[in-house]
Design a protein that fits this description.
By secondary structure, this protein is α+β, with helices and mostly antiparallel strands. The protein has two domains: 49 residues; 82 residues, Sandwich (Immunoglobulin-like). The protein contains two helices and six strands, in the order ααββββββ. It has a three-stranded antiparallel beta sheet with strand order 1-2-5, with no helix packed on it. A three-stranded antiparallel beta sheet has the order 4-3-6, with no helix packed on it. The longest helix is centred in the first third of the chain and has 36 residues. The protein is elongated. This is DUF4307 domain-containing protein. It comes from Streptomyces humicola. InterPro entries: DUF4307.
Length: 136
C-alpha cells in the first residue's frame, strides 16, 4: 500500500493541504486554550480580590417546626458592615425559611446565633453567601 502512495502525484487527494490545515487547527487550538486559561485566571483573581467577606455555618439546631437556630461565623474587614443570607430547607429540599442578617460589629471576626423562622419543619441551615452591605 505504501508503494502505491509513493507513486501518486504530490498534493493529490489533498494530502499537502490536510497537513497545513492540521497545523493551523493545532495553532488555533493552542491560542484558544491560552485565551480560555487567561479568562478563567482573571475571573478567579477578580472574584477573590473583590469578595473580602466570607462566612460559614458552624453548627445548627432545629428548635421547633417553625424555627431553626444557626451559629454563624463571619470574617470581614474591621469596620465593614456585612450582609449574610441564610436559608433552611425541608427534607424534600424545598426552602422553608430565609433570612438576611446584617452584621455591623466593628470586629473582623463575628460569631453570632441566628434564628431562622420557617413555614414548616426545617432540617438544615445553609449559608447562601455574605457580602459587603454596600454591594447587597
Amino acid at each position: 500500500m505504501t508503494a502505491v502512495r509513493d507513486r501518486l502525484p504530490e498534493g493529490r487527494y489533498g494530502r499537502a493541504d490536510a497537513a497545513r490545515t492540521e497545523r493551523r487547527l493545532k495553532a488555533l487550538g493552542a491560542v484558544l486554550g491560552a485565551v480560555l486559561l487567561a479568562v478563567v485566571g482573571w475571573s478567579a483573581w477578580w472574584y477573590l480580590s473583590t469578595n473580602d467577606v466570607s462566612g460559614q455555618v458552624v453548627t445548627f439546631t432545629v428548635v421547633s417546626d417553625s424555627e431553626v437556630q444557626a451559629h454563624l461565623e463571619v470574617h470581614k474587614p474591621v469596620g465593614t458592615t456585612a450582609v449574610c443570607t441564610l436559608r433552611s430547607q425541608a427534607p424534600d429540599q424545598s426552602e422553608v425559611g430565609r433570612k438576611d442578617v446584617t452584621l455591623a460589629q466593628h470586629a473582623s471576626v463575628v460569631d453570632t446565633m441566628v434564628t431562622i423562622r420557617t413555614t414548616a419543619r426545617g432540617t438544615t441551615a445553609e449559608l447562601l453567601g455574605c457580602q459587603r452591605a454596600d454591594q447587597h
